[in-house]
């Protein structure tokens, strides 16, 4: 049986150093400007609200730019990622940026065990994370186990309709060619590139992804006692998800170049664990 997680981990390990030096992640700006935060977290600010003093965990944090950004907004953050090389880069960022942020190497499904008995006021999951997980029910178990009573989940993610679109059509049409719903078997890719500007070449190029419908995600959380606070859909996403068919705005977000209202590209889900 293919080891999907091993392939994905090797792919992220291979790309993390290039991501850390790419202008798109702007690591140098974290070092030179103590007030700088990532474009992703800046986009999140209107819905994120005040997080001062919250104990937060960022699941699937990659190289830590969003984690450090959340810490700069006042939260006491821990980042977790299954890629050891990504976490190495995150720790280097935190040290260089003088950020008191912890980072842990672990599969997200093992987060509860690895983080011990700690409970968190904020569980944050950034865009481009859930698609690497085969089982949304297990993910919801992890979220529930990490939240303190009254704690909140903040999730911004690529829209499941976006993940269903064939990104390589020569005619430019938006065609749903992949499953909208979770499937047991992943979609496997073997491309040699990445989603940021870099001249680096990569050798670990096989990766596997799974889609999860909005209903599947929301119901998994509701079944575990979380209360849905809001679901906002957005016309943009922070990378060129459909190459050649998108335009980048001044905020770092990408929209469809032609009739951008045709498709929601990402969404923000906010929920909390009831105190009762």
Automatic annotation (TrEMBL):
Record-linked InterPro entries: Methyltransf_12 (IPR013217), SAM-dependent_MTases_sf (IPR029063)
SUPFAM superfamilies (UniProt xref): S-adenosyl-L-methionine-dependent methyltransferases (SSF53335)
UniProt feature, compositional bias: Basic and acidic residues: 1-17
Boundaries of every Methyltransferase type domain copy: 58-153
Sequence segments annotated as region (Disordered): 1-20
Gene3D superfamilies: Vaccinia Virus protein VP39 (3.40.50.150)
UniProt-listed CDD domains: AdoMet_MTases
Name of the protein in question: Unannotated protein
């Amino acid at each position: 049986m293919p080891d999907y997680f091993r392939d994905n981990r090797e792919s992220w390990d291979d790309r993390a150093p290039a991501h850390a030096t790419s202008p798109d992640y702007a690591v140098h700006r974290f070092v030179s400007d103590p007030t700088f935060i990532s474009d992703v977290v800046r986009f999140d600010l209107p819905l994120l609200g005040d997080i001062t003093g919250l104990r937060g965990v960022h699941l699937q944090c990659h190289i830590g730019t969003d984690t450090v950004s959340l810490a700069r907004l006042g939260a006491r953050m821990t980042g977790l990622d299954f890629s050891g090389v990504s976490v190495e880069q995150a720790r280097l960022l935190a040290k260089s940026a003088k950020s008191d942020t912890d980072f842990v190497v672990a599969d997200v499904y093992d987060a509860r065990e690895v983080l011990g008995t700690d409970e968190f006021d904020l569980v944050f999951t950034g865009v481009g994370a859930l698609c690497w997980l085969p089982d949304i029910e297990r993910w919801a178990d992890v979220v529930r186990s990490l939240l303190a009573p009254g704690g909140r989940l903040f999730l911004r993610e690529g829209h499941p309709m976006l993940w269903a679109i064939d990104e390589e059509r020569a005619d430019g049409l938006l065609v749903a060619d992949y499953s909208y719903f979770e499937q047991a078997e992943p979609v496997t890719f073997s491309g040699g590139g990445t989603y940021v500007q870099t001249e680096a070449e990569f050798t670990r190029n096989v990766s596997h992804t799974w889609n999860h419908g909005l209903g599947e995600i929301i119901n998994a959380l509701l079944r575990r006692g979380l209360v849905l606070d809001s679901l906002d859909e957005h016309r943009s996403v922070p990378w060129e998800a459909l190459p050649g068919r998108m335009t980048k705005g001044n905020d770092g977000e990408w929209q469809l170049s032609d009739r951008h209202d045709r498709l929601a590209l990402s969404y923000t889900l906010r929920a909390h664990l009831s105190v009762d």
